[in-house]
Amino acid sequence: MAQLDIRGLEARYSDLTVLDGINLTVERGEIVSLIGPSGSGKSTLLRVITGLLPPRAGTVSVGGEMVNYADRASLRRAREKLAIVFQQYNLFGNMNVLRNVMVAPVTIKKRVRAEVEADARRLLDKVGLGHKLDAYPDELSGGQQQRVAIARALCLKPDILLLDEVTSALDPERVGEVLDTIKLLAAEQMTLLIVSHEMAFVREVSHRVVFMAEGKVQEIGPPAQIFDAPLMPRTQAFVSRIMRH
Ligand SMILES: Nc1ncnc2c1ncn2[C@@H]1O[C@H](COP(=O)(O)OP(=O)(O)O)[C@@H](O)[C@H]1O
Ligand SMILES: [Mg+2]
Q1: Span from the CA of 165 to the centroid of ligand 2 (angstroms)
Q2: Residue 7: φ, ψ to 5°
Q3: Residue nearest to atom 3 of ligand 1 (CA)
Q4: Using one digit for the tens of pLDDT, what is the confidence trace for 102-124?
Q5: Beta strands 82-85 and 31-35, pairing class
Q6: Are 146 and 166 in contact (CB under 8 A)?
Q7: pTM as predicted
């Protein structure tokens, strides 16, 4: 059973078709990366999966259960299995790092505070911020804030972590530390669906790479196929363009 199973998914913004018959599965422990030109629908796909935009057609199953996006209970069950990190980390500026990571599990999920705190400390240690528990977001670099955002997402204990261009807003010298954090998760067999422009990183961590353009999946394959021997002319053009710089 796939952790995530997407079939015939369509989405629109008013009369603009943004996702046009997407089929995609992500297995447990699999790392799948979405690449493609700006505007190809990568973020929209993650928005639909997480229930931020209702699909117009098609189905999404999370953990074997088909999500009914019109039904709050069904959507809540799906969301319990998913966590998403965006380009903008959106930490709470009035809370220190530890509180930022603990707040949702404690207040929304009603988990036992001491257990959440133990998890939060362990996760912040893992992302290399065990020494910054008392710091406030504005005292941290962008890379540190993004690592807090990743720890915060992990503290929700998701079955699948979705990452949407989490390094795009960072200064170049801060990108590596965030990619290293994601590599740690990859090494632990976390199920990941990643949108990234960092092609060397995508190539290194992904089991499969999905090339999207114009709201469609154009090609799916292992990194060696997509980057070295793409089957579709559209993929070839994209890859040769991005590999030139
Ligand atoms: N909130 C929105 N309202 C209207 N159109 C949108 C909105 N967000 C994205 N789009 C359009 O949907 C298409 C896909 O966008 P997006 O999913 O953000 O692409 P990507 O993440 O691959 O760059 C683009 O044509 C974009 O202009
Ligand atoms: Mg995007």
Answers
A1: 7
A2: -135, 125
A3: 13
A4: 999 999 889 999 999 999 999 99
A5: unpaired
A6: yes
A7: 0.96
Residue with tokens 């505070």: 113
DSSP states along 178-233? HHHHHHHHHHTT-EEEEE-S-HHHHHHH-SEEEEEETTEEEEEE-HHHHHHS-SSH
Tell me the CA–centroid distance for residue 215 and ligand 1, in Å: 10
CA of 128 to the centre of ligand 1 (A): 34
> CA distances (Å), 111 to each of 62, 91, 132, 156, in order?
22, 20, 23, 10
Residue nearest to atom 10 of ligand 1 (CA): 13
- Bridge partners (DSSP) of residue 19 are 11
Phi-psi region of 58 (alpha: psi -120 to 50; beta: other; left: phi over 0): left
- As to burial, measured by CB atoms within 10 angstroms (0-12 exposed, 13-18 middle, 19+ buried), residue 150 is buried
CB atoms within 10 A of CB 239: 20
Burial of 34 per CB tally in 10 Å (0-12, 13-18, 19+): buried
Q: What is the pLDDT of residues 126-177, one digit of tens each?
A: 999 999 999 999 999 999 999 999 999 999 999 999 999 999 999 999 999 9
CA distances from 13 to 48, 55, 111, 147 (A): 12, 10, 37, 31
